[in-house]
Amino acid sequence: MALAGFRPLLGFHSAASSSSRTPFALSSPNKCNWTLPFLPNSDTDRPPPFLVMAEVRTAAAGTPGRGYWRLPHVLTVAGSDSGAGAGIQADIKACGAAGVYCSSVITAVTAQNTIGVQRVCSIDENMVAEQLRSVLSDMQVDVVKTGMLPSAGVIKVLCQNIKEFPVRAVVVDPVMVSTSGDLLSGPTMLTGLQQELLPLADIVTPNLKEASALLGGISLNTIDDMRFAAKSIHEYGVRNVLVKGGDLPNSLDAIDIFYDGMTIELANQYMVLMSMKKLHTVLFEEKTFMSYMDHARMTRNTHGTGCTLASYIAAELAKGFSMLQAVQEAKTFVDSALLHSQDLMIGKGPQGPFHHLFRQQIIPSQKPRFDAKLLLLYAVTDSGMNRKWGRSISEAVEASIEGGATIVQLREKEAEAGEFVEATMECLDICRTSGVPLLINDRIDIALACDADGVHLGQTDMPAGLARKILGPSKIIGVSCKTAEQAQKVYADGADYIGCGGVFPTTTKQDNLTVGLEGLRTVCLASQLPVVAIGGINSGNVQSVMQLGLANLKGVAFVSGLFDKECVATEGRRLRSLLRDSLQAHE
Ligand SMILES: Cc1ncc(COP(=O)(O)OP(=O)(O)O)c(N)n1
Ligand SMILES: Cc1ncsc1CCOP(=O)(O)O
Ligand SMILES: [Mg+2]
C-alpha cells in the first residue's frame, strides 16, 4: 500500500533504511516497528528536543536564507473534559509542555468536574470522521493518540482514517473508566478496540480496570496479575503494553508494567527507570517486564494522569525518541507534575486536576521583579581604558561603586575564559560587599560558573529565552535593542531590561550604528521593559538624554564617560549628581 502521507522526519528513513541506529523502520503501511537497536542507556542517545525540532527545518522554495519549519505533531482523538483535567484538554497541555503541536478530534463532550462525570454526550461517528479527515488530510500528523472512543462506529472510522493516512505511531489510552470510577464508554467499544484498533497500535496504556475489561473482566490484584495482563493484551497485536498500577490494592507505590515482547537477550541489558531517575537492575523472567516503581503521591490531584501519560508518550514519539525513552520521559513528567501540584486546590471534589504547565510557570513569588532603579548609573568596564589609566578591573569596579554606580557590567571582549573568571570572582567580592549587582557581557558560561547576578546580551548572542532557561528566574538578563521590534521580542523572551544605543557616536564600540535620541525614544515608547541608554554619553550630555522625559528610561550606561577618566570615583559622583537632578526635574 502506497505510504501516502508518510514523511521521513528528522532524517529518519522509511522501511528501506539499513541504518542500524534508526529508531524505527516502517514495516507495514500503518505501523512503525519500534525496534530499539541502541539501548537508551545514556542521555547521549537522546537528541535534545530543540535539536529534534530544529532538524525538521526545511528550506521554503524560492526563499533563500529563510526556511519554513514544522513542529512534531500529535493528533488526539478523545473526549472533552469540561474541567480540563483530562481529555483533549490534558492532551493539548501535555503536548505543549513537551514542546509539541497538538490538534484534536472530539469524540464526546462530557460535563464533569472534581466530583465526577455528570453527563456524557457522544459525537456522531460521521462528525468524528469529518474531523479526522480535516486534520489528517491537511496537517502533517506524526502520532495519533486516542482517549475516549464511545462506540464501535467511532473506532471503525478511526481505523479507516489511520489506514488511509499512515502516521509514525498510534498510542491508545483505552479510556473506559475514569479514575473517579465513572464508566466513560459503552461495552460495544470493547470489541472494536480489541479486534480493530489494538492491532494498529504501537502502545496501549490501560489502568487496572481497563486491563481487566480488555481481558473479559478478570480480576487483577497483584504485580504478577499485571504481568499476565500485559502479556495477554500484547497478544491482541499491539506492539507495546503499559499496564498502569496506580490503583493496585495494598501497594504504597504506583507500579507500571511495560511489556514489549522483547527477546530475553536484549532485555537483560535494560535497566529499570525508577522515578526521579534512580536506576535499578531487575531479574527478567521468561519475557520482558519492566516495573516502574513510582512513589505514590499523597495528593487528590491525580485526575487526568492516564491521559497525560499517554499524550506525553505520543509527544516524545513524535519528536523521534524510542518507545522506551518516550515511556520513561512520560513517567518522569507525570511524576514531577504531581509533585509540583500536590497541594494545588482546584474544585471541591476528591479528584482534583494537576498543573501540566508547571515547567513554564514562573510563580510571581519565584521571579523577583527587577528593580529598574538599578539602571540609574550603569558602569560598563573596558580593559583598554583600565590599561591606559594603569588600574586593574577590580580597582575600576571598586572606584565606580565608590562614585555611585548602581550596577556594574564586566564587558571584556578580549579576555580569555580563565582571566575573565578570575576577574569576575574578584569583582563579585567587591560588588556583593556593596550590594551592587554584577552582570557579565555576552558570556553566559562565565556568569553561570561564577554565580554572577546576570548577563547582558546582544542581538547576535544567545536568545534571552534560552538564557532565561539556563539562568533561571532570579538572574538579571539585559538585551541590546535598537528597534521597537527587538524590544517587543525580548520582552516576550523574559528579559529584565533593555540597553538602547549608541545614542551618540562612540569609538568605544566598533562599527556601532548610532540610533540618536529619536531612536532611543522609539525603543522606550515600544518597550514594556525598563531601558538604559548607552553610547557616547558623558557629563556633558547626560542631561539631554534624561530630559527626554521617557517614563521607562531609567538610567544611563557609561564606558568612557566613567572609565576614561583619571579619577573614576570623582567622575562617578559627578554623573550621579547630574542624573539625580534630571530625574528630580521630571518627578
Ligand atoms: C547596558 C548595555 N547596553 C548595550 C551594551 C552593548 O553590549 P555589546 O556586547 O558591546 O554589544 P551587543 O553585543 O550588545 O550589540 C552593553 N554592553 N550594555
Ligand atoms: C557597549 C555599547 N553599546 C552600544 S554603544 C556602546 C559603547 C558605549 O561606550 P561609551 O560609553 O564609551 O560611548
Ligand atoms: Mg554582546
Name a few traits of the molecule.
587 residues, alpha/beta, UDP-N-acetylmuramoyl-L-alanine:D-glutamate ligase, TIM Barrel, six-stranded mixed sheet, 20 helices, elongated, disordered N terminus, binds the ligand Cc1ncc(COP(=O)(O)OP(=O)(O)O)c(N)n1, binds 4-methyl-5-hydroxyethylthiazole phosphate, binds magnesium ion, thiamine-phosphate diphosphorylase activity, multifunctional enzyme, thiamine biosynthesis, magnesium
Could you describe the 3D structure shown?
- Its EC number is 2.5.1.3.
- The chain is of the alpha/beta class.
- The protein folds into two domains: 73-271 and 301-340, Ribokinase (UDP-N-acetylmuramoyl-L-alanine:D-glutamate ligase); 372-585, TIM Barrel, CATH 3.20.20.70.
- Helix 13 links the parallel strand 17 and strand 18.
- Helix 3 (125-136) runs parallel beside helix 4 (152-164) and helix 6 (208-214) crosses helix 7 (223-234).
- Bound molecules: the ligand Cc1ncc(COP(=O)(O)OP(=O)(O)O)c(N)n1, 4-methyl-5-hydroxyethylthiazole phosphate and magnesium ion (MG).
- 4-methyl-5-hydroxyethylthiazole phosphate binds next to helix 19.
- Magnesium ion (MG) binds at residues 441-442, 458, 461.
List the helices and strands and how they pair.
Blueprint: E1 25-28, E2 31-33, H1 49-54, E3 58-59, E4 67-68, E5 73-81, H2 87-97, E6 101-112, E7 117-122, H3 125-136, E8 143-146, H4 152-164, E9 169-172, H5 188-197, E10 203-204, H6 208-214, H7 223-234, E11 241-245, E12 253-259, H8 264-267, E13 272-273, E14 279-280, E15 290-295, H9 305-318, H10 323-341, E16 377-380, H11 383-388, H12 393-402, E17 407-410, H13 417-434, E18 438-441, H14 444-450, E19 454-457, H15 464-471, E20 476-481, H16 484-493, E21 497-501, H17 516-526, E22 531-534, H18 542-546, E23 553-558, H19 560-563, H20 568-586
Helix pairs in contact: 2-9, 3-4, 4-5, 6-7, 9-10, 12-13, 12-20, 13-14, 16-17
Bound molecules: the ligand Cc1ncc(COP(=O)(O)OP(=O)(O)O)c(N)n1, 4-methyl-5-hydroxyethylthiazole phosphate and magnesium ion.
